[in-house]
Design goal:
Blueprint (H helix, E strand, L loop, with lengths): L2 E3 L2 E5 L5 H13 L14 H11 L5 H19 L4 E6 L5 H10 L7 E7 L2 H14 L4 E6 L15 E5 L9 H14 L5 E7 L4 H7 L6 H17 L8 E8 L4 E8 L3 E5 L4 E5 L4 E8 L3 H10 L3 E7 L5 E7 L1
Length: 326
């Protein structure tokens, strides 16, 4: 069902397919030798709130570093994009889009249509309403969808500034990164531009501290996926029986997050008619966060049929924002 409120429209394409998709992913993940669940299932309403908390933690450098880059880059980007759709993939909260709208000037807001794309309908609706209160005249068309599968559902009738920030691309494996960039490239018109955030390789200590915060918010965020599985698939995971684990894998150049069983446990997932035995010390792999070198980004972008028009870095070279064109 689509909902309308003033100049906010939300198109929900997941309502019917979400249950089938999570069921298929969970079955594959819990029957694999290394148990796993895709990280996109972190982001229900509670998960989105927890991630917003993570972004404000002192240990979590990616958000504040990227925001510093955006503040520097946004005026130049918006100067060359006077009107059209601002599409934000994996939009979550609206903290970053404000930087672009402020750079354009509030008197120019009516020239843009904001198109947030997110899997959480409640988070998208709430963020859109808040944004519209701040920017009178801004039209919002929210898309509740999985952008890794549904790029064809994102409007393309205007010039577009497509944003994929936060180094969310690092949550994909290498093949998925390339496949996703190619899918976006196929959806782009000649005058579209595509902004992608990349978290760069840096010292292990900095990386591991960022994903093991002292307040335990990341641990709650990680365990939230078990609550999602309990609710959506009638499972009986007990999150207290698992501990959060995050470490940097040098060989694969990524931070991995896992949930490790404190003791042997047997879980039933009623909607899958599946009983899962998880031994003490065994893990459920919940997320990857790949880190990038400049050479890797250049290769991936070029092999996806795109080119780097501008590339912005912070002073330490910890994070980067690439503006891609066809």
């Amino acid at each position: 069902m689509n909902t309308h409120s003033a100049s906010i429209e939300v198109r929900n394409y997941l309502k019917k397919s979400y249950c089938n998709t999570i069921a298929k992913d969970a079955y594959r993940g819990f029957t694999a030798s290394q148990k796993y669940i895709p990280s996109k299932y972190f982001y229900d309403s509670r998960g989105s709130q927890l991630f917003d908390e993570i972004c404000c933690l002192p240990e979590y450098y990616p958000t504040r570093t990227e925001i510093s880059i955006l503040r520097h880059a946004a005026p130049n980007i918006m100067k060359s994009f006077p009107q059209g759709d601002i599409v934000e993939l994996g939009s979550g909260a609206n903290r970053k889009i404000r930087i672009f709208l402020d750079s354009a000037g509030k008197e120019m807001v009516s020239q843009f249509r904001y198109v947030p794309v997110d899997v959480s309908a409640s988070a998208l609706q709430e963020a859109s309403e808040e944004l519209q209160r701040l920017y009178t005249g801004l039209e919002v068309v929210g898309i509740v969808a999985d952008f890794t599968l549904h790029m064809d559902l994102v409007p393309c009738d205007n010039s577009r500034l497509i944003m994929f920030l936060g180094s969310t691309i690092g949550n994909f494996d290498q093949k998925m990164q390339w496949d996703f960039l190619r899918a976006v490239a196929r959806s782009m018109n000649p005058d579209d531009r595509f902004l992608v955030g990349f978290d760069m390789i840096k010292p292990r200590e900095t990386l591991e501290t960022a994903y093991n915060d002292s307040r335990g918010v990341t641990s709650k965020f990680n365990k939230n996926v078990l609550h999602v599985l309990n609710r959506e698939l009638n499972a009986n995971f007990q999150p207290s029986q698992f501990e959060h684990v995050a470490f940097y894998n040098d060989e694969k150049e990524r931070v991995e997050m896992h949930l490790r069983a404190k003791k042997k446990t047997v879980v039933t997932i009623d909607d899958l008619s599946l009983e899962v035995t998880i031994d003490k010390g065994e893990t459920i792999h919940t997320e990857n966060s790949c880190k990038f070198s400049r050479d890797r980004v250049k290769t991936m972008v070029s092999q996806s049929g795109l080119r780097i028009k501008d590339w912005y870095f912070d002073s330490k070279g910890w994070f980067s924002l690439a503006e891609l064109r066809l």
